[in-house]
Amino acid sequence: MKSSPIRTFARLAVANRVSGIYLGLVGGAMAVAAAEPLFATNPDASLIWVWPALFTFPAFGFVAWLGEGGWGGDAPAWFFIGGIVVSALVQSLALGAVWRGLRGRRGDQGSRGRLSAAS
């Protein structure tokens, strides 16, 4: 029975160890960045948002390029925060696909080894 494309997407992007750890890292960085202005009094508090952007690089590079082209470097905060979220999901999907590919290869070799040993 084939699973739906949405279920496959969710399984690759969210429901595996590697993607979960990555999304947790990005989510934690975003939570710290959102809480930083509440506790910091220095004018450099907004620079904390560099970390979530770096965790989602290279996909976030495309979002920054769109922001530069669309708003001339003065893009609104919602655009960059949404870009971080979308970039994290895209990269999580890629990590999930690589993880599934590596596990699938390892599983295929193991089953072939058992079949040939039984023969």
Automatic annotation (TrEMBL):
- Superkingdom of the source species: Bacteria
Q: Name one Pfam family in it.
A: DUF7942
Q: Does the keyword Transmembrane apply?
A: yes
Q: Tell whether Membrane is among the UniProt keywords.
A: yes
Q: Which UniProt keywords apply?
A: Membrane, Transmembrane, Transmembrane helix
Transmembrane regions = 20-40, 47-66, 78-99
Q: What is this protein called?
A: Integral membrane protein
Which species does the entry assign this protein to? Streptomyces parvulus
